[in-house]
Amino acid sequence: MSSPSRPRVFVSRRLFQETLDLIAQHAEMDVFDCSGSPTPEELVARTKKCHGLVAQGTDRIDAAFLDQCPDLRVVCNVAVGYNNIDVAAARERKVVVTNTPDVLNEACAALTWGLILGVTRRLGEGERTLRAGQWKGFQLDFLLGMDLVGKTLGIIGMGRIGQAVAAKAAAFGMRAIYMRSPRRPDEVITGPDGAPYEGTTLEEVLRRSDVVTLHCPLSPETHHLINRESIRLMKPSAYLVNMARGPVVEEASVVAALENGWIAGAALDVYELEPVVHPGLLKFENAFLIPHLGSATRETRTAMCNLAARNLIEVLEGRAPVTPIPGSFIDV
Ligand code: GLV
Question: pTM higher than 0.90 for the full model?
Answer without folding.
Answer: yes
